[in-house]
TrEMBL record, chains A, E:
Gene3D superfamilies: P-loop containing nucleotide triphosphate hydrolases. This is Phosphate ABC transporter ATP-binding protein. The keyword Ion transport does not apply. GO terms for cellular component: membrane. Keywords: ATP-binding, Nucleotide-binding, Phosphate transport, Transport. GO terms for molecular function: ATP binding; ATP hydrolysis activity; phosphate transmembrane transporter activity. Residues 12-254 form the ABC transporter domain. GO terms for biological process: phosphate ion transmembrane transport.
From TrEMBL, chain C:
It is a multi-pass membrane protein. GO terms for molecular function: phosphate transmembrane transporter activity. Belongs to the binding-protein-dependent transport system permease family. CysTW subfamily. This is Phosphate transport system permease protein. GO terms for cellular component: plasma membrane. It comes from Sphingomonas spermidinifaciens. It comes from the Bacteria.
Length: 259, 422, 456, 326, 259
């Protein structure tokens, strides 16, 4: 490997990152840059460390007692593992959407208002209403739920729940959005909706998406990183990776030899 | 979707003063919350420590006893017993009939003055009697025999006591007549009206017999019903009813089981009062649901993939259960059983209802003999007139706690040892 | 032959049946492929030997004493028996005891007279029973044995038998519930035939010292007991147990290092393992007087040393691990995706706990608290030893209060006159307590079930 | 199965006041005969004890009843109806209902009428409002009335009603004696009912706890059997009633108003089949003298004549004549 | 649809099978034939009913209280849902391998010996040893484990565990082997081993394999059935299905439009 695709000033940059679960190494010396207004896809067989690496980007790995990260990860040039880094703010700036939609068991409104409330982003109730409406609109959900904002978020369909989670994430006005297989629990129609949404959002955020569906990676991303057994095998422009991979392993994977 | 519909928003300035202040407040709240949690845990622990310490502090004295070296001049007593009587079964009756008790009292008066009889325990003469039985030649000579001191003297020797006892103890100590030692009687004796002669073995044996019945009944029935409910029962009214009854029985106040035992076992089946068999039956009904629930959870925790695997190679349901599920669930079932048994061992209220609240000075030999159990013994001693029982009560509590803690520790050990994550 | 000897004999026969059937099946397996394993054939035969014989023995154990009794009553020696039924059955029972064990002395001379007759009949029926049981065992065994053949599905039959045994075991729970309900109901019915149920349930004066013959309900109004029970068990105890239990659970599950949790959690469980009689002793001797002194110090000279507060506090401590383990379960049942979701938004741990986890776990926590309440109001020894018997309705925790369970113990072990409404009142109180805890549990279990389903 | 159980130990039920004495005799009984099972003694209370005692003859039923009051005619009849008719009644000694306070207490001196006014639920027919001792009698100190006593179901409470409250009530209210015959309900309500508020604290059967609570609460007065007072003489002292202090001497001579006789009742028909029962009775008779072990346990020996009569009853096995009961 | 590919006498044949979970229909009128010496692959998006249908073939659905099957399934012409069918024997004849390797927590030897033991297939200990060795050999595991037959089956690696499960299944000498995504939890190397094993076993058994990996289906199977929303969309010779699907939905799925 594999100089990361060069960018002037990347939004996030990781250098020589290793992650361990206890004694087991899950990520081995990964360096990668993530840019604004770009969708970066992580692909690779199951267990190769995609999720693990994704979670290092907003320090969600802190919640796993055995996990240990070393190397350097910078957001706008600032080291996010520095001791004076405020995790709470970091996570507000780097939002996350999970594999299984996980709306809180509260109303739709409360789900979206949760982040702004805890961070004190809304000055007034009207302000909060506006944020909620904006976020839901951006997540393409406003039309479907505007008449039932007080229904429980868990009562929505799977695809709607996932969009609700996206709305929840963008309500705190993040700069980066991390998505871990956001469509793997959804049916084809809902998947299509989310993919469309990713397209739209791309203009405002840096988006990182983990997927096991190569067609999806090809459809939504501009850059693709292929992981295997904890290492980053190849990272480059999506169209190139899919049509003309430089590594044998990448090719085998893309053509379905394994995984 | 239409991007024109997406309004713009001003980005949040995370470095703003107000934001920073807010963050600091949130972290302060976080610390407070965490501190509250720690305080709750620590206070609970402190309470436990205080409880244990109180019991230890007031109960340790119960394991020791103060003794008086009593000089006895047997020939002068002129006891009317013939040596050949002493070898036979009637020795006790013969010695008692010969007025040994009064003679010992008189010897104490002679040795320690007018209140001499008050410094030795009421059962001191029994010690003398045992000594004579062990060595009949004593009757023909003088001897000094160490007998238990009266409770007041023991109190004076180990802590605070009435002034006259303090004085008497000081006098005895000055005369070198006071010794102390480990109170074996406490571990080997049965209930007594005399605190220096009272022991817990009778109650402990009652507890053991009771637990035997409880375990023998509750364990098999509990395990079998757990298996039935978890592995076989169809979902219908009947099994719902069984399930609801079991869950409710687990939470029915224990005293209600006492009322049940009183009405059914004593009232209807005319079983003997105060008997370990009745206590055991009552407690078995009480802890059976505990075992069923623990058993069900243990059975449920066996991953379905194991059942699938066995079914997949053509095992029948009984084979699945007895070859795979039960062996894997056993540690969990045992844990639940031990916890249930610990609960039964510490239970008092239902046994009061079925007559185990009795003065029983001989340890039980059979399941139908009258018996008490350890916690009831504690309850009875806490109400004793004689003050010497205060420390006996705490000492008995220590013994009970040792048993219970051991059982709980075993359960926790089993749980940690066999807690498998599949 | 004695019952237990017969039992062992039948078991022995079953073992023989098992061995021969298995041997036969093994032999058959040489000629054709067996449907079931030889051992399963063995079990089939063993079941047929043992189960009919056991069922018969159980029935016979109930029937034969009655037959023997009829026989004895018909004998000429029975002519002199008193006509009074109670005395008569006492004499008969004694005669039987002597018949079985001639070394016993007799309370009644007549019993001694009847004993030989009884012995004759007992022996006769014992032999008849033995014969029938053995006959059944052999017949069952022979029938089962005759069915052994390669295509015979012994396994299916055995499994059905096992299933039946399991079913019977699980019915014990229902029988116990019925037994409790029946015994309480029977005595309570007698009570309510003396004291109107309305007076008992809604009367506000409880003072069983003198029960008036003309208006027995006037002094047996249980409201003060219900109040005391509620005040001690559901208010004071919970005021201790809920905050401590919840915060402990939260600390141990969300904050504490795994090593701390591994040590501290069992320590908390020890609090639940301490027998209630110890808590009672502790409450009565240490906590009660201390609370009284405190109350006097803050200007309440009438404070009682058996205050509701003393019993309630100690009870609350006892319940802490109960609440904490229920809360622990409820928190664990909230999918970790909720927690991750909230943390990923930038919420702090405490915000996540109080705004997401607790609301989500609330139904489970509430159910746990309901169960804890039912536990507290059924708790007996602490109140027997530390609460007073005075039935007053007071909001002051330093006043004394009494509870249903304490009154049950007092009424049944006190010096009441026999068959008086006082004694029967204990059963009526027991019934009420049973019904209340039953309802609490049903509600709690419903809540738990509903909310578990929500996450499944 | 009914009644099929053999029994080789003596079963005793009844009063918790007599319990310590009977257990003492039981222990002596066993000390002499270690091969014998010790008697099994339950402190059920007199009333509940009578219920069990009178349920019938035979191994399932107790042999001896401890009673801190005499059997009533109605109870005897109920016994007889169950076949329990030949009963030996033995008075074993005396006990006093003692009033006691902590040595640090205010040194009260009470009259029976003071106690009645302080303790009755409706003294003179009106609800009791007294809070301080000075409210019932200006001569008494201004100390809150706070009495710790036995529960309503206890025999000590019966004795309190019968020996203290009823006489005081009759002395204060002339009509009361008449109510006793014609309107017992009214008599009970006005004369013997004890107040339910905080002034009387019902402290359960556990007399020993009462002692310890008195120690912690010097202004309170405890009510319990004399033996408890004697055992704790270093911490407590008796409150004089009508000028008479509860002491061994005043109770045994009957000068102290709260003295009451203690009984045991024995089923004559159990004497033969229950091994050792007769020996046990003999041991009892040997223990109740003024210098016997029971007195050391706090019992008050009955007057010589009563002891002699009781010993004669034990020796001859004379059964109770129901006509002598009320 | 979709006459099942015609065969003279299929090993198993399903006709008009419907499966319901409570009121919900999971399989809708599926007819299919499975032949000896053939590998049949079931493919389709998640939740389309592949596993459900597979489990009807050895009546593993009986263990789900709410499941109800109608239609007709025959094994060698015998109706397996007939009331006199002995399920235990059926399952011995139609073995099953599951998605997650599920060895019993017993020794390797006991894992394999379990089936022969309960069915009384071994006359002696030596016989049993022989069966165990044969089965492990056929499952390609003998070489790796022969020296540690007494180790616990759960101590093996994932791929070894899965092969152990296959050995366990073939130890009772089944005629049909059903495999439900047997490789989805495995790494590429283990997957390759299992695929190879399937190739070898094919000669002796009728094999049905569920997979979400189309390349795998293409590699190992001779026939492929494509399920969608509980119906059998297309069933035919594998090479044809992948190169020249007759149905639009099949084509969309194979080219990664959804799933
Ligand atoms: N909490 C954990 N503790 C220990 N090991 C873990 C933990 N989480 C993941 N792992 C291990 O780390 C490795 C990488 O896991 P990760 O979840 O990042 O893979 P992934 O690429 O996201 O896979 P998938 O496509 O299945 O989601 C795996 O081997 C996994 O078993
Ligand atoms: N036990 C069950 N109870 C109720 N519904 C079920 C059950 N099992 C499966 N289903 C439903 O039946 C449908 C078919 O499920 P099935 O597991 O057969 O799908 P699948 O094709 O195997 O999917 P996957 O590729 O995810 O394994 C799904 O909608 C599923 O939700
Ligand atoms: Mg992942
Ligand atoms: Mg599936």
């Amino acid at each position: 490997m594999h100089a990361p695709a060069p960018t002037a000033s990347p939004k996030m940059s990781a250098r020589h990152v290793n992650v361990f679960y206890g004694r087991k190494q899950a990520i081995d010396d990964v360096s990668i840059d993530v840019d604004m207004e770009n969708v970066t896809a992580f692909i690779g067989p199951s267990g190769c460390g995609k999720s693990t690496f994704l979670r290092t980007l907003n320090r969600m790995n802190d919640t796993i007692a055995t996990a240990r990260v070393d190397g350097e990860i910078r957001l706008d040039g600032e080291d996010i593992y520095a001791s004076d880094m405020d995790v709470v703010q970091l996570r507000a700036r780097v939002g996350m959407v999970f594999q299984k939609p996980n709306p809180f068991p509260k109303s739709i409104y409360e789900n979206v208002a949760y982040g702004p409330r805890i961070h004190g982003l809304a000055a007034s109730k009207a302000d909060l209403d506006r944020i909620v409406e904006q976020s839901l609109t951006r997540a393409g959900l406003w039309g479907e739920v505007k008449d039932r904002l007080n229904d429980s978020g868990t009562a929505l369909s799977g695809g709607q729940q996932q969009r609700l989670c996206i709305a929840r994430a963008i309500a705190v006005d993040p700069e980066v959005i991390l998505m871990d297989e956001p469509c793997s629990a959804l049916d084809p129609i809902a998947t299509a909706k989310i993919e469309e949404l990713i397209h739209e959002l791309r203009g405002k955020y840096a988006i990182v998406i983990v997927t096991h569906n190569m067609q999806q990676a090809a459809r939504v991303s501009q850059r693709t990183a292929f992981f295997h057994l904890g290492t980053l095998v190849e990272y480059g422009v999506t169209s190139e990776i899919f049509t003309n991979p430089r590594q044998e392993r990448t090719k085998d994977y893309i053509t379905g030899r394994y995984g | 979707m239409n991007s024109a519909a997406i309004p713009d928003r001003a980005p949040t300035d995370w470095r703003a003063q107000a934001m920073q202040r807010r963050i600091r407040r949130r972290y302060a709240a976080e610390r407070r919350f965490r501190w509250l949690g720690l305080a709750a845990v620590s206070l609970s622990g402190a309470f436990l420590a205080f409880l244990l310490w109180t019991m230890l502090a007031s109960g340790l004295g119960g394991f020791s006893r103060t003794e008086v070296r009593l000089p006895l001049d047997f020939p002068a007593m002129a006891l009317d017993v013939r040596p050949e009587q002493l070898g036979r079964a009637g020795a006790d009756l013969a010695l008692a009939g010969a007025g040994l008790q009064n003679a010992v009292g008189a010897a104490a008066v002679q040795a320690f003055g007018d209140d001499g009889e008050r410094v030795i325990s009421d059962s001191a003469w029994v010690t003398v009697r045992e000594a004579i039985k062990a060595d009949p030649s004593l009757l023909s000579r003088r001897a000094t025999i160490t007998v238990p001191a009266a409770p007041g003297i023991h109190e004076a020797a180990t802590g605070e006591a009435r002034p006259d006892d303090e004085a008497a103890a000081a006098r005895l100590a000055a005369a070198g007549a006071l010794t102390s030692g480990f109170n074996w009687t406490f571990l080997t004796g049965a209930d007594s009206t005399d605190p220096t002669a009272a022991g817990i073995w009778g109650a402990l044996k009652g507890s053991l017999l009771t637990m035997l019945v409880t375990l023998g009944l509750a364990f098999p029935i509990g395990v079998l019903s757990a298996i039935y409910l978890e592995e076989y029962a169809p979902r219908n009214r009947w099994t719902d009813l069984i399930e609801v009854s079991i869950n409710n029985l687990a939470a029915v106040p224990s005293i209600i089981f006492g009322l049940l035992g009183l009405a059914v076992f004593l009232g209807t089946f005319n079983m003997p009062r105060s008997a370990p068999v009745v206590g055991g039956l009552t407690l078995a009904l009480m802890i059976m649901p505990v075992i069923v629930i623990a058993g069900r959870n243990a059975v449920k925790a066996v991953p379905p993939s194991i059942r699938d695997a066995a079914l997949g190679v053509g095992a029948s349901r009984v084979q699945v259960v007895f070859h795979h599920v039960l062996p894997l669930a056993l540690p969990g079932i045992l844990t639940g059983t031990i916890i249930g048994m610990a609960r039964a061992l510490g239970e008092t209220a239902p046994l009061l209802m079925i007559g185990m609240r009795a003065f029983i000075a001989t340890p039980p030999d059979k399941l139908t003999d009258a018996a008490s159990v350890l916690p009831v013994q504690i309850f009875l001693w806490s109400d004793q007139v004689s003050r010497g029982f205060v420390e006996k009560t705490s000492a008995a509590i220590i013994v009970l706690l040792v048993f219970l803690l051991a059982m709980n520790a075993l359960a926790i050990y089993l749980r940690n040892r066999f807690e498998t994550r599949w | 032959m004695s019952g237990s000897a017969l039992l062992f004999l039948v078991l022995g026969l079953a073992l023989i049946g098992w061995l021969t059937a298995r041997a036969r099946a093994v032999r058959l397996s040489g000629t054709a492929r067996l449907h079931s394993l030889p051992g399963q054939h063995g079990w089939y035969v063993a079941m047929w030997v043992a189960i009919p014989a056991f069922v018969f023995l159980a029935l016979w154990g109930w029937l034969s004493p009655q037959l023997a009794r009829e026989g004895v009553l018909a004998s000429p020696q029975a002519a002199g028996l008193p006509t009074f039924a109670f005395e008569r059955s006492a004499i008969l029972a004694e005669a039987r005891a002597i018949a079985r064990n001639p070394d016993l002395g007799a309370f009644n001379p007549q019993a001694e007279l009847l004993a030989p007759v009884y012995r004759t009949y007992l022996t006769r029926y014992s032999w008849i029973g033995t014969a029938i049981a053995l006959l059944l065992a052999f017949a069952g065994g022979a029938y089962a044995f005759s069915r052994i053949a390669p295509p015979f599905r012994a396994r299916g039959h055995v499994e059905r038998g096992v299933m039946l045994i399991l079913l019977v075991a699980s019915l014990i729970a229902i029988l116990t519930t019925l037994g409790i309900f029946g015994s309480l109901l029977f005595e309570s019915a007698r009570f309510f035939s003396i004291v109107p149920i309305g007076d008992f349930l809604f009367g506000t004066h409880w003072s069983p010292q003198v029960v008036s013959a003309t208006d027995p309900g006037a002094d047996l109004g249980a409201v003060p007991l219900f109040w005391g029970t509620f005040f001690i068990g559901a208010v004071i105890a919970m005021a201790v147990a809920i905050p401590f239990g919840l915060m402990s659970a939260i600390y141990l599950t969300q904050y504490a290092a795994p090593a701390v949790r591994r040590w501290v959690k069992p320590m908390l469980e020890i609090l639940a393992g301490v027998p209630t009689v110890v808590y009672g002793y502790f409450a009565a001797l240490t906590v009660g007087p201390a609370i009284r002194q405190f109350a006097v110090a803050i200007g309440m000279p009438y404070a009682s040393s058996e205050s509701a507060l003393a019993a309630g506090l100690v009870m609350g401590v006892m319940i802490i691990p109960f609440v904490s383990s229920m809360a622990d379960d409820a928190l664990a049942a909230v999918p970790s995706a909720m927690r991750d979701g909230s943390l990923a938004m930038g919420a702090t741990k405490s915000e996540t706990i109080s705004r997401v986890l607790m609301p989500a776990a609330l139904p489970g926590v509430v159910a746990g608290i309901l169960l804890a309440v039912s536990r507290a109001i059924g708790e007996t020894m602490i109140v027997v030893m530390a609460a007073s018997g005075a039935a007053t309705i007071s909001l002051n925790p330093f006043d004394s209060a009494t509870t249903v369970t304490k009154q049950i113990v007092d009424l049944l072990t006190g010096e009441a006159e026999f068959d008086s409404p006082k004694t029967l009142a204990a059963f009526a109180l027991g019934l009420t307590l049973f019904v209340i805890t039953f309802l609490l549990n049903i509600v709690a279990l419903r809540v738990v079930k509903k909310y578990r389903e929500a996450y499944e | 199965d009914e009644g099929g159980v053999a029994r080789d130990e003596i079963r005793i039920v009844g009063s918790s006041t007599v319990y310590p004495f009977t257990t003492t005799v039981a222990e002596a009984f066993r000390n002499k005969r270690p091969d014998r099972k010790a008697p099994v003694i339950e402190a059920t209370g007199t009333g509940a004890g009578i219920k069990q005692f009178c349920a019938g003859i035979g191994p399932l039923h107790p042999d001896i009843l401890n009673a801190s009051r005499r059997l009533k005619k109605s109870e005897y009849d109920a016994c007889a109806a169950n076949g329990v008719s030949e009963i030996i009644e033995v008075q074993v000694g005396l006990d006093g209902v003692a009033f006691a306070e902590s040595n640090r207490g205010p040194r009260l001196r009470l009259g029976r009428t003071d106690i009645y006014r302080a303790l009755a639920a409706f003294p003179g027919g009106r609800p009791n409002t007294a809070r301080l001792w000075s409210d019932v009698n200006p001569g008494l100190p201004r100390v809150p009335i706070q009495m710790l006593g036995p529960p309503a179901t206890s025999g000590t409470r019966d004795a309190l009603a019968e020996l203290i409250l009823a006489p005081a009530c009759e002395a204060l209210l002339p009509q009361a004696a008449e109510w006793k015959e014609v309107d017992p309900d009214r008599f009970a309500r006005t004369c013997t009912r004890v107040r339910d508020d905080a002034a009387y604290v019902d402290s359960g059967e556990n007399d020993n706890l009462i002692v310890q609570k008195l120690d912690a609460n010097p202004s309170a007065v405890g009510i319990f059997g004399f033996s408890y007072l004697e055992e704790n003489a270093d911490r407590l002292h008796g409150v004089p009633v009508d000028g008479v202090e509860p002491t061994y001497e005043t109770i045994s001579t009957g000068r102290y108003p709260g003295a009451r006789p203690l009984y045991i009742y024995v089923k004559k028909r159990h004497l033969r089949p229950v091994p050792g029962l007769a020996d046990f009775l003999a041991d009892y008779a040997a223990a109740w003298g003024p210098d016997g072990p029971l007195v050391r346990k706090g019992m008050i020996a009955a007057p010589r004549a009563v002891r002699a009569a009781s010993a004669a009853i034990v020796a001859r096995g004379t059964t109770l004549d129901p006509a002598a009961l009320q």
